[in-house]
Amino acid sequence: MLLSVGYSSCHWCHVMAHESFEDSAIAQVMNESFVPVKVDREERPDVDEIYMAFVQATTGAGGWPLTVFVAPDRTPFFGGTYFPPEDRWGRPGFPRILAAIATAWKDRSRRSELLQGGIRLLDRLRQAAELPGRLSARGTLITSDPVGRAVRQFLGSCDREHGGFGPAPKFPPSRQLTLLLRHHLEDGGADSLDASLFTLRRMADGGLFDQLGGGFHRYSTDAEWLAPHFEKMLYDNALLVPVYLLAHRISSDPQLADDARRVLDWMKGEMLNPGGAFYSALDADSEGEEGRYYTWTSPEVEEVLGEDAALFGAAYDVHPGGNWEGRTILRRVTADAAVEESFGVPAGQVGPRLAAARQRLLARRGGRVRPGLDDKVLLSWNALAVTAFARAHRALGDDGCLRVAQAAGRFLLENLRSDGRYFAVWSRGRAKVSAMLEDHAFWLQALLDLFESDFDERWLLAAEEAADILDAHFAAPGGGFYTTADDHEALPVRTRSGYDGALPSGNAVAADALLRLAALTGSKRRHHAARGTITAFFAQSVESPAGFATLLTAIQRYLAEPRQIVVVGSGAREETSKALRRLWGVPSENAVVLLADAHTPGKSALPAVEAARAAGPGGGISFLPCRGGVCSLPLADVEAASEYLGS
Q1: Whole-prediction pTM value?
Q2: What is the torsion angle, in degrees rounded to the nearest 10, for the CA atoms of residue 505, residue 508, residue 511 and residue 515?
Q3: Distance (Å, rounded) from C-alpha 231 to C-alpha 113?
Q4: 278, 385 in Cβ contact below 8 A?
């Protein structure tokens, strides 16, 4: 088998497809000696994980397109990433690779030798899947030690000139920034906050961010966030929104809130399907060129903006010759005050003029050939988007964001769920591919965010169901969860990992979400499952903390005492809404605000809500601090409740 793993918005995947797969002579060689199979890594992360591990182990690098030669029993024996159509750049051409592999495979004496490397790798993956259980069986004391080590590592690798961590290429470090911001909240680390805010601001000012249409591109090829690979992925943006919102709540910097809004506006404007769910990605290429849709020349800007072109160019790095391959990637290089001084513009007028200029350029850009759209709906990525919009509702007081989150949540329940189980993909009216760990973990998190935003306990019931599926079909001996369910298609290895990859670890997100669910419902079973997951990977997080940032945020939640405020209302909707917005603005990641409306019929599934209803006074609005289903005396007012949440 010739296995090619890629994704629709991958630039080099398109290049290899055009150069080799669409070449009739090369295609003939492929089909004479191999069974070619194309896999979308976004639909089948389980397949990608196994064969990427093989290529990384045998070549020292990985990426997409992933090109792997696989025996009929699915054992890999040779692989790489992009291969050119002829010998080039010190790489053998793809036809040479095909001929060499075909010759070696037909020689039975060499065939067994070829397979040995793949057999050893699969054995190592099986051992790695068993390792967490063996380690946790020894008994583990969960401490904050790996959190402190990770924070020191991140701060030690922080680029103090451009932001981010380590050298180029630079990916948006959403998990690292989340850990640092939470470290600041819990331990008062000023360096953690400073490094996070600096990185977030530099990313949003750079070419990594689409200065006209909003949203972040995939990653930056350079250290200063100028030149990205131009594909836009739903999950990158969905992961970054909560980070910007948390940083805004901590710092009260309105620009960070505006950055989050511009990402959300892009997601609403370009990525929503008619049913309310989110598409997956936009291509990097258009008109045969990467970045063509997003870049400009100085004459183009002058034609559109006229007399405002010089002012806009000073702010956004537009000049003859461009800043990237003869064209300009827009990035913010000069603050409003400096532009005002340079051009003699009265104070406060540059911002509106630049905003108007951006809209004119965006309108002109809309007439260009648009990048291709990957219109499939992924449960895992949509769940991340639901979380982003639900949290934006709470952080920004934006009811429109809540409606978007609710609509997407309903779509996922109605279209990717059948007979009590979930599918991972919805495309062209059909659900397919059994949902995996990351689907259930991210969806569980999203359902809790929906519930904490509108207090509709139907989301909570769905969260309980998702947690039950994890327990029944994914749970592994010794703690944690396998990547695939027990009734999933059989693969060479059933993997189990707590390590962050391109997406946060499914095990880590599951642990964090289960802790939240346990705090809401008082369920010891959910808390035990979360603790078992953390314990399973704790030893590895101590050894390599930087690779387990999401697990470390779950550890932070586990070690902190959860705080709840139940707002008991008595029908004064406007007063209650105002109080909720005030409490939601408190920068705390381990506190929950609940609502016990005196006029809501029926019994709540939450002990704290029932206790608050029983303890709350008959008139007005009150704020009850609760823990473990037991509520204390009401606090004096919303300010006292805010202090309690943030303490």
Answers
A1: 0.95
A2: -120
A3: 40
A4: yes
